[in-house]
Amino acid sequence: MNSFLIGVGIVSVLVIIAVVSVAIGFVVLRNKLNRFSRDLFGSGDFVDNIKKQKQLISETPKSIRSMTSIYQPLIKKDFPDFDYEHYRTKAQSVLRSYFNAIAGKSPSLLQEECSLTLINNVSGIIEDFNSRNATQYFDQAVMHDTQITRYIKDGKTVTIVFEISVGYLAYTKDGSGRIIFGSNTEKQQTIYEIGLVYIQDEEMLSNMGEAFGIHCPNCGAPITNLGSKFCEYCGSAVTEVNTRAWKFNSIREQSFQRKQY
Known about the structure:
five-stranded antiparallel sheet
């Protein structure tokens, strides 16, 4: 019996020593973290500073490497009537309609300047969410900056790539309303690429007229010649065909994170 009690006593002492050691280790680690925090952030509460930094990151817009001043004169030389401010603003409007179309699960919410290619892409995203009985949300979206970052000419088409710095609450809910991805309280900062395409090859326009939605305003027949003044099907006057040849053809988010779409 005495041996048993002695054994129990030894075990109890060892447990106490272990607990005290862990407590001391925790205190030492906390003090080291707080000293590190003071050196790094200027104050001693490491956990609080990490939370503040995380919030700061969520509220700081992503920066864009602007090439507008370089590409704008080149675009103006090739397309003297190109209205940069109009299309810069329109790119923002198209991106908002993209968010609304996905959240509302209705491609018809896209701006009319969107090509059929982009409409089909959004339709595919919506079908994917429907197959998983889920809904994507974009709340409190703010467009911080919009710039031209690329100007691509391949002989048949011309593409102007806008980048838009965006902050929003992005999250996905399942059929029961439970958030399964993202956050409805913590903002995300990201960048979207918006492609604005002009078809300058008439043969390509004929082949892709449907995809780019260039039609007669009267009968709806496809316009197969950018220089057409009259519809070859109904004879109606066709004006500003070149303007309608500009279509927003792609939207892509720049992100290294896993996305739901």
